[in-house]
Each structure stands twice: as structure tokens, then as C-alpha cells.
Task: inverse folding
């Protein structure tokens, strides 16, 4: 009887660990996506600035 209880507990622990790992992986992926989006926005802003500078140059 005791063995069964211990086995059950071990299984629960394993499942818990797996759940935690999955959550960590998900957050990592989310962070990666966030970072790429931020980089893209910064790139867009840089491009816009470059275009703005060029337009100013054209005006002169």
C-alpha cells in the first residue's frame, strides 16, 4: 500500500515538473517574440528617420 502512495507522489511530482518546464518554455518564446517585435519597430523608426533626413536634403 505504501509503495502505491509513493509511486502516486512521484508521478504527481513528474507532472508538476513537466508543467513548470512547459510554462518556462512558453514564457521564453513570448520573450523572443517580444524582442523581435521591438527590434522591428526600432528598425522601422530608423528607416523613417533616414527617409526624413533624405527629404530634408532634397528640400535644401
Result:
Amino acid at each position: 500500500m505504501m509503495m502505491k502512495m509513493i509511486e502516486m507522489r512521484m508521478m504527481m511530482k513528474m507532472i508538476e515538473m513537466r508543467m513548470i518546464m512547459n510554462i518556462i518554455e512558453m514564457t521564453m518564446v513570448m520573450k523572443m517574440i517580444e524582442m523581435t517585435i521591438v527590434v522591428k519597430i526600432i528598425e522601422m523608426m530608423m528607416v523613417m528617420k533616414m527617409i526624413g533626413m533624405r527629404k530634408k536634403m532634397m528640400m535644401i
User: Anything to note?
Assistant: The longest helix spans residues 2-59. The chain has a mean pLDDT of 91. The CA atoms of residues 42 and 48 lie 10 Å apart. Helices lie at 2-59.
